[in-house]
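Input (structure):
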């Protein structure tokens, strides 16, 4: 009786350890759980050797205990357990029974987890796949001087193989209270939203809206709506370089500028509505496992008053200290060829500080 119980226990144990098995051209057999294949290599998770990658052409036979998803050349996806016979995949499916396909017709193999992630990637919810960062810079003095300099920049992006949504915001504030009365020496806020949609592997369309406030340009609000076409000149794992062009509509609202003695005449409030061309480029590069470089340049020639234009330039180098923490240095410039009388044409910002990240870090 005891022997019967031992035998029954061994049978249940054997069922529990059933695994997928692949046979190689040299006769070796590997057991484990098949994870995925792209018809070039196959990933197998084993108990003792960990994750093993095998060349697809080196495999002569496959037998699985788990149901796998096989994607065929015609786009059809077949789900079932696999057993090879006469150089064909014999698939036992729940819906269609037994099916037979050639190895050459299989373009991908996935387990349930990989297929679920792929379906999520192809049909994402709006809340899926967000990544982002927060760059901070702070300088404070007290004692014989009393100053505060603060910069805050945040970006978030939702990226899929088909599209990308980006949201960004930068705030700059400087204050000097050393000699009463205190005075603000810098105060600007910039932000916007941009959407990119891939038309092909290289070509994409984009649309954006930007907002900007700058106290010392007397700019109460700049709102820009635009869009156009772009092209991925370089698109690799570590480098992406894009160029783009299109058009935009710019609305600018400037407040009145008081007179500067000895003059007794100031500048009244001005509202501008301008049609512009948009042209630019952006670069994102991974220099090493820890260091990244990004830069973007856009120029907006005025279509109504030729010769006038504005441009924006941003560059950031960041080094990762931990998965979620890094150190960054940022250079930013905004140029306006026709500012209000008495004001300078460009504003520069150089800041450094901590970077906090979340998600997969698409920046």
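Output (sequence):
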């Amino acid at each position: 009786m005891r022997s019967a119980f031992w035998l029954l226990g061994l049978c249940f144990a054997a069922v529990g350890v059933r695994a997928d098995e692949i046979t190689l051209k040299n006769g070796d057999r590997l057991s484990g759980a098949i994870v995925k294949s792209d018809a070039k290599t196959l990933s197998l998770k084993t108990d003792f050797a960990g994750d093993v990658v095998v060349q697809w052409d080196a495999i002569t036979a496959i037998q699985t205990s788990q149901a796998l998803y096989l994607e065929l050349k015609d786009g059809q996806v077949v789900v079932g357990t696999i057993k090879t016979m006469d150089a064909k995949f014999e698939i036992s499916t729940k819906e269609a029974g037994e099916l037979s396909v050639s190895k050459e017709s299989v373009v991908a193999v996935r387990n349930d987890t990989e297929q679920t992630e792929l379906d999520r990637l192809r049909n994402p919810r709006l809340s899926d796949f967000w990544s982002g960062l927060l760059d901070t810079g702070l300088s404070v003095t007290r004692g014989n001087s009393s100053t505060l300099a603060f910069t805050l920049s945040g970006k978030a992006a939702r990226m899929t193989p088909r599209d990308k949504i980006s949201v960004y915001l930068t705030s700059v504030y400087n204050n000097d209270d050393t000699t009463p009365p205190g005075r603000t020496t810098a105060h600007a806020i910039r932000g916007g939203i941009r959407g990119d949609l891939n038309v092909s592997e290289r070509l994409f369309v984009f649309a954006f809206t930007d907002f900007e406030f700058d106290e010392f340009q007397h700019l109460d609000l700049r709102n820009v709506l635009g869009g156009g076409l772009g092209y991925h000149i370089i698109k690799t794992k570590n480098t992406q370089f894009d160029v783009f062009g299109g058009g935009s509509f710019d609305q600018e609202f400037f407040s009145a500028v008081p007179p500067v003695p000895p003059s007794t005449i100031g500048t009244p409030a001005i509202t501008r509505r301008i049609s512009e061309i948009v042209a630019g480029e952006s670069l994102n590069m991974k220099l090493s496992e820890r260091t990244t470089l990004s830069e973007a340049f856009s120029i907006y020639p005025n279509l109504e008053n030729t010769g006038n234009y504005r441009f924006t330039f941003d560059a950031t180098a960041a080094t990762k200290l931990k998965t979620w923490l890094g150190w960054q240095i940022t250079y930013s410039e905004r140029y306006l060829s026709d500012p209000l009388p008495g004001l300078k044409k460009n504003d520069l910002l150089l800041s450094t500080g901590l970077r906090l990240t979340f998600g997969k870090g698409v920046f």
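Notes: Confidence is low (pLDDT under 50) at residues 1-17. The radius of gyration is 30 Å.
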